[in-house]
Write a structure and sequence with these properties.
The complex is a heterodimer of chains A (265) and B (241).
Chain A lengths: L1 E8 L2 H6 L5 E7 L6 E7 L9 H25 L7 H26 L23 E6 L4 E6 L3 E6 L4 E3 L11 E2 L7 H4 L1 E5 L3 E7 L1 H4 L4 H17 L1 H18 L5 E8 L3
Antiparallel strand pairs in A: 1-11, 2-3, 3-4, 4-5, 5-9, 6-7, 6-10, 10-11
Helix pairs in contact in A: 2-3, 6-7
Chain B lengths: L12 E10 L7 H21 L3 E11 L1 E4 L5 E2 L16 H11 L16 E6 L7 H9 L2 H5 L1 E7 L5 H8 L5 E4 L2 H19 L3 E4 L2 E2 L1 H16 L14
Helix pairs in contact in B: 1-6, 2-3, 6-7
The chains are: A alpha+beta (265), B alpha/beta (241).
């Protein structure tokens, strides 16, 4: 049986300068608690990304639908015809297209305000909503993770060891990130998958991951696993209460984390 | 352990501000005096930035006949102290470029515990490179950290080769000419503080091109040059070193 969690908090520096929280997180289980999805998204800071809080929330909702649809399609497909790499790339393309559609709808319904007009580019509205995206799915048959931009997706294997679930991109770090709003977003997505049994996956924006040394972050994920699988509601409350302090002492950035864990049998 | 266990240390992102300082013979006297005073005076302001969103560190590379680091590794701005430097020798900017390239890596000066944001590089020179500058710069331009860094150059006095400095920054607008000690001090303060603030913000990459940190820095330089009366009529100013 699976258990899920998510938490998100406005960054300490955003509180100080009046910016909204531009991160978003979501986690979902099917009714039987056998399939779970975890998603985190980080809307870009900077003046020209003035609707990235909307962009990150849209990305979470769209990724959820895309991954559910993928799973439903997967279980209808005969095993011999299942092609992970191709089909995961299709998920990524679908997410990008749907995100752009929803951004256009939002922009049509919500015209630029006086304050936004000097900052926007009428030729290309997407950067105003720009965001990263990390999403993972665990099912009885497989697990997968997709990511564009910075942040960290961590997998806990059956022996309880942590590792990054998606290959780190050389373009990440340096304070720069790839984005779903870029015209070349499809080529910047990374993904991974496996059919081995695992204990869980977490996805977190860089506001969380950058607040720890890597080995301490892995310890944090393991502590999350221990606490969430034992006392899920209490752990959820403690995590949500912890995030503002994490931001204040660490990255100062918005912070979002979500995960799916397999309860011990 | 609990989720909020205090034994699990929390860290800040790191940013390194590189001062690359020409200490060739022509800098002797008023020019190097102004550099010494300006860097010393800007440190308290940098400490304020260092206390906020990033863990700001400083590394200083001086070059004349050869080059060398003031400290063996970047020093936290709280602990960074400036001791007077003198000037003598030629202008081995090419050697400085190679040394910068060697140290700008995760295994050397940019190995933060959690994450580093793009560094800021502030080059100060009053003359013409005297060594294989093109070769050294070419090596430096292969370095990914350099590619993403904020790069600003101050051309000290009329003899500084602005075109060569523009090759370093990648943009003529990121080269600022100064003609007197007060302007140099002002510029050191402005570039150090502004690049540190801009450097700590995250920016998306478009089509493989990092966009706005250097652009944001250039915008700030342009704004400053338009609004500050000391900078608005640069073409008529005579050197007063």
């Amino acid at each position: 049986m699976l258990v899920n969690f998510k938490a998100c908090a406005q960054g300490f520096s955003h509180i100080a300068n009046g910016k909204p929280c531009q991160d978003a997180a979501g986690s979902f289980l099917n009714r039987e608690k056998t399939v779970g999805i975890a998603i985190a998204a980080d809307g870009h800071g900077g003046a020209k990304y003035f609707r990235s809080d909307v962009g990150s929330a849209l990305a979470v909702a769209i990724a959820k639908t895309a991954l559910w649809d993928f799973y439903k399609q997967f279980i209808r497909t005969p095993p011999i015809q299942r092609r992970f790499d191709e089909n995961i790339s299709l998920i990524e393309q679908r997410i990008i297209l749907k995100w752009r559609e929803e951004v256009e709808k939002h922009a049509k319904k919500n015209l630029w305000t006086e304050a936004e007009r000097p900052l926007c580019d009428e030729e290309n509205i997407f950067p105003a909503y720009g965001t990263t995206l990390l999403a993972a799915l665990i099912a009885p048959e497989f697990w997968l993770s997709v990511q564009i931009g910075d942040g960290l997706c961590v997998l806990i294997d059956n022996d309880g060891n942590c590792d990054t679930a998606v290959i780190q991109d050389d373009e990440q770090g340096f304070g720069y990130t790839n984005s779903i709003c870029s015209s070349d977003a499809a080529s910047k997505f990374r993904h991974n998958f496996g059919t081995n049994a695992i204990k869980g996956i977490t996805v977190a924006t860089d506001g969380v991951a950058d607040s720890f040394k890597r080995e301490d972050y892995f310890r944090f994920v393991k502590d999350l696993y221990d606490n969430v699988t034992k006392t899920p509601k209490q752990a959820q409350t403690e995590l949500q209460a912890y995030l503002p302090a994490l931001s204040e002492q660490g990255s100062r950035d918005d912070v979002a984390i979500a995960g799916i864990f397999r309860m011990g049998e | 352990m609990g989720i909020n266990d205090k034994q699990r240390p929390i860290v800040k992102r790191q940013m390194v501000l590189f001062f690359v300082v020409d200490i060739s013979g022509s800098m002797e006297g008023t020019k190097i005096g102004a550099v010494n005073t300006a860097i010393k005076e800007v440190l308290p302001e940098l400490k304020d930035i260092g206390g906020s969103d990033v863990d700001l560190k400083i590394a200083c590379l001086t070059f004349s006949s050869g080059c060398g680091w003031k400290d063996p590794s970047p020093v936290s701005v709280e602990n960074f102290t400036w001791s007077q430097i003198g000037a003598d020798g030629v202008t081995d900017l090419g050697a400085a470029c190679r040394e910068l390239a060697a140290k700008m890596s995760k295994t050397e000066f940019l190995g933060a515990p959690s994450a580093s944001v793009a560094p800021a590089i502030f080059l100060m020179s009053d003359g013409e490179p005297t060594d294989d500058y093109e070769g050294g710069l070419s090596v430096l331009q292969q370095n990914t950290w350099f590619k993403y860094a904020i790069k600003v150059a101050v051309a000290i006095g009329d003899d500084a080769n602005v075109d060569e400095l523009a090759k370093f920054t990648g943009n003529r607008e990121a080269v600022i000419k100064v003609h007197d000690p007060e302007s140099l001090k002002k510029m050191i303060r402005f570039v150090s503080v502004t690049s540190s603030k801009i450097g700590s913000q995250s920016q998306p990459v478009q089509n493989g091109t990092p966009q706005t940190k250097q652009d944001a820095m250039i915008d700030k330089i342009n704004d400053m040059q338009q609004t500050d009366p000391d900078w608005s009529s640069m073409s008529n100013i005579q050197d007063s070193w």
